[in-house]
Design brief:
The protein is mainly β. It is 5% helix and 41% strand. The strands form 3 sheets. It has a 6-stranded antiparallel β-sheet, with no helix packed on it. A hairpin with a 2-residue loop joins strand 12 (136-141) and strand 13 (144-149). The radius of gyration is 16 Å and the shape is globular.
Length: 152
Amino acid sequence: MTTSAAVTLADLTARTGLDVLAHLEREVTIPVVAGLQAQGDLIVVPLALLDDVTVPPHTRWTAVPAGGVELLRGAAGGNPHTLVADPGTCRWSRRVNDPQRLALGVLDATAVAYLIHPEHGGTGIAPGAYVIRRQRERSESTGRLGNRFIAD
């Protein structure tokens, strides 16, 4: 997957073998964002913005393979959020210290990496270090105010 030029959703699905639903416009250019971004029930946060989140010094990193890394599958076995990148440009670890316990893991990319999801399409993540977290919302269930994960 060459990421030096603008990448369309059609390019991304062809290069990864991952598919998206038919209602999505395949010729749209995927935006690349260096800051906060969300995709369904995930939120991508630059690691530098999270003072209380740390990566242990001896964290074991895994290179993101050509087929990607499934980060989270939607509620009730739904559609997956998959992290994809050019070989050798992105690494991933589920080992992260997050006092809020929202982190799924952390990525470190030297080139653009992408999240792809069948319903949401693709989003680009600029080079850097990011924490991938679950999103949550305040809710009132069983008469109590609390937090719940957003499920898409």
